[in-house]
Amino acid sequence: MFEMLQYEFMQRAFIAGLFIATLASISGTFVVLKRYSLMSETLAHSALVGVAVGLVAGYNPLWVAVVVSILSAWLIEYLRSSFSIYSDAILSIMLSGSLALAVIIVSLGGAFNNSLFSYLFGSILSVSDEDVYTIIGFGSVSLIFLLLFSKELYFIAYDEEVAKTSGIKVKFLNFLLVSVVAIIIALSIRVVGSLLIGALMVIPTVSALQYRVGFRNTIFISLFFALFSVIFGMSLSYYFSLPSGATIVLSVIAIFILSLVINKK
Questions:
Q1: Residue 34 — φ and ψ, nearest 5°?
Q2: Which of 115, 94, 111, 89 has the alpha carbon at shortest distance from 45?
Q3: Measuring CA to CA, which residue among 199, 204, 209 is closest to residue 246?
Q4: What's the CA gap between 119 and 78, in Å, rounded?
């Protein structure tokens, strides 16, 4: 464990990975409770559009991914709140459209290379100092918003209509939540990959919910599962030369299966 931390690239990967795990697990609790789990996958594909644009145009892919992901989140929430369209239908449409657009941009720009591959599946070696600073900067702001409005967000997730009648600014907080989720997902694709980040956001929370210990304890358990999965997954990735994103996701799936077995009635 300590041997691999002697390398700077592993230090950067662990800093980014643990920070992402914290953000993903906390935000994932609200996403799952709102039955909005497909949102993470949809925004991950939207972030991939930003990555493709960044690679083709020569801009920092991570920054462009953040912008495109936020705009997509706002569009999804606007369509959900303004039109009589089911949430899962909107997410499915956006997911398919984003992936198709990303493929076209990459094809036209000839940018399908190892750099794009690392954004698809995650890569420890690809995490740079700039990426770490970006993740910590944007991530800290996102975490502050989640903690400041945690009670209101929980109330909205539990019953949106009652929250409206109670004077809570539901529309504003919904836009805030999807914006935070969009930022977290865009920041995560360096470590976990756009095709796998949804698992890190959803599965720890679903695993924690199996223990039925209340909202606050569910967040703490979900956080522990996510952090452990990142540490264990990255360790496997280093020692066995495996893709970091895939090992992290398989670790959290193993935790989910174990949670199901432990809590089986």
A1: -85, 0
A2: 94
A3: 199
A4: 28
